Amino acid sequence: MASDLHELLRSLRVWDPQSTHLPPFDPSAAPATPLPLFTEWFAAAVAAGQTEPHTMSLATSDESGLPDVRIVMLHGADETGWSFASHAGSRKGRHLAARPYAALGFYWPVLGRQVRVRGPVTAAPSADAQGDLHARSTGALAAALTGRQSEVMDSVEELTRASEAAWERARSEPEAPVPSWTLYRLRPEEVEFFQGDGERRHVRLRYRRREEEGWVRELLWP
Q1: Which residues of 168-207 are buried (b: 16+ CB within 10 A; e: fewer)?
Q2: What letter does residue 195 receive in the DSSP assignment?
Q3: pTM here?
Q4: Coil, strand or helix: which one is 26?
Q5: How many other C-beta atoms lie within 10 A of the C-beta of residue 78?
Q6: What pLDDT, in 10s, does the model give residues 88-119?
Q7: Do the beta carbons of residue 141 and residue 133 sit within 8 Å?
Q8: How far is it, in rounded angstroms, from Cα 124 to Cα 101?
Q9: What b/e string do you get for 108-139 counting C-beta neighbours within 10 Å, with b at 16 or more?
């Protein structure tokens, strides 16, 4: 199996021209702050047909400092930070309660682009979290009502029963509250934009926040 996996990995191609277009990126023309550039790149990924461009990797660490990562959905990005949501008692929620710092990673292979964000995380007011949840789909509310995220489960049948009850309530009570649902905001201290290049001369532009000076831009070796 290991040999088969090795051969499979060697057969794969990165940024196949049939599915990937590597646009030029002039960092000297980048805006003074990272949010406008993120918005521009996100819109370009959507226009290019990138599948689920709003999904991102979220990295946290537990009480001992051991890292963990998973894929979550971006709920918004503005001057207050990049937002995502989860139950306060989930694994990521417990991590953030113990160590309120995280990193995000976006990858849009259709354009050969990555964006990396990291900084401290705070919980938004409960009203914001409930408003965000109830603005989403019935399925999102049903999933939140099912609850018990990251807890040990006895069987798939147990999940089915809980989910069916949650779906029924979500349909009959579209404003049903979920007290544990938490909207988190990551206030970026560092944002890096990576543009892939066919000759491997990748462009990396990093923004670093300095409280006295605002955002500082710098290029990194690929």
Answers
A1: eebeeeeebebebbbbbbbebeebbbbbbeeeeebbbbbb
A2: E
A3: 0.93
A4: coil
A5: 10
A6: 999 999 999 999 999 999 999 999 999 999 99
A7: yes
A8: 15
A9: bbbbbbbbbbbbebebbeeebbbebbbeeeee
